[in-house]
Design brief:
The structure holds 2 protein chains of 2 kinds. Chain A has helices at residues 5-12, 16-38, 44-58, 68-90, 100-110, 115-132, 137-148, 153-160, 164-185. Chain A is mainly α. Classes of the chains: A mainly alpha, B mainly alpha.
Chain lengths: 199, 112
């Protein structure tokens, strides 16, 4: 969906209705990206609100509406990064919570979706989060944006304000580290994600 | 550094499929506007305090300025009329007094 420049321009000049429309247009995409970046569904809305709050108060600093999307992504990345760092400080153990599989099982019972499919997806999520824990928060975000969100190097260059070559090196190293963890776990992960779809 | 296609790429694709874009809850927009308003009122309160601080600082500067001015005009007070160096300059040194005594005596002897 191409960005609506007139809407962005109106929101930038302080039109709250235009800002509201802009949030409605982008919130689903931003919620999805945050969900995949932080991996905790219960906190996704909170982080997304933080993104749009920062957007509201910094919109007038936007140089031109052309760079709106990379800029919004930068705010998203920063908010997700802050969240992940806070989580790390709190040292919240995932073990202390209900495992994601248990939560999904409850959800599956409540919804009409196939329980096997739900469990499979929960397994994929947990496995990927485990793998991504092998790298720093910065690399986790970068790798997710490239590999999962499917952003191009050009887009990442705009978001991070870093030269493409530096990004390539960083991505390569992060990917190698995750790949190594993946290779190590694969023999023990028979029937786990990566080897086919849900049963 | 070419694009690698391996089990990891496939896993990431599965992860993408396992994490669809969630729908925002009913409280999302009201919650967002509430946060915006809270921050706005906080910012306006800070602005108000800042303005008050600036006013107090300006008044203080003015008071110090006035005090400095009246202090300078107090220099014309007869109790305090000169600086220490000026006072030294004006004061007669004891040796000058001794010298003038000798001169007076010499004058006396010359006359008598």
């Amino acid at each position: 969906m191409p960005p609506d420049f007139s809407l962005i321009e109106r929101a930038r000049s302080g039109d709250d209705t235009a800002f509201n429309q802009m949030v409605l247009a982008y919130r689903k995409r931003i919620l999805g990206t945050i969900a995949r970046l932080i991996g905790r569904p219960e906190d996704v809305e909170d982080v997304a609100q933080e993104v749009f709050l920062r957007l509201y108060y910094s919109l007038e600093q936007l140089r031109s509406p052309d760079v709106f999307e990379p800029w919004l992504y930068r705010l998203t990345v920063n908010a997700a990064y802050d969240y992940l760092r806070r989580q790390k400080r709190r040292q919240e153990s995932r073990m202390a919570d209900l495992s994601e599989q248990q939560v999904m099982m409850a959800d599956a019972t409540a919804s009409g979706k196939s329980q096997a499919e739900q469990l499979y997806h929960a397994g994929v999520r947990e496995f990927v989060h485990e793998l991504l824990d092998e790298v720093s928060e910065e690399d986790k975000i970068l790798l997710t944006l490239k590999e999962v969100e499917g952003l191009s190097l050009k887009e990442l260059e705009q978001i991070y304000n870093v030269k493409e070559n530096a990004l390539k090196v960083r991505l390569y190293r992060a990917r190698q580290r995750v790949l190594k963890a993946y290779e190590q776990r694969r023999p023990f992960a028979a029937g786990r994600p990566g080897a086919g779809g849900p049963a | 550094m070419t694009e690698q296609r391996d089990g990891l790429s496939e896993l990431f694709e599965q992860y993408r499929a396992a994490c669809p874009d969630p729908e925002a809850g009913a409280g999302f927009m009201p919650g967002l506007w509430q946060r915006i308003e809270t921050r706005r009122s906080f910012a306006s309160r800070i602005r108000l305090y800042a303005r008050g601080l600036v006013a107090v600082a300006a008044a203080l500067c003015l008071a110090i300025g006035i005090f400095g001015f009246t202090d300078a005009s107090a220099a014309t007070n007869p109790v305090y009329t000169e600086t220490y160096v000026e006072a030294l300059d004006h004061a007669e040194a004891p040796e000058t007094l001794a010298y003038s005594d000798v001169m007076v005596q010499a004058e006396y002897f010359r006359e008598n």
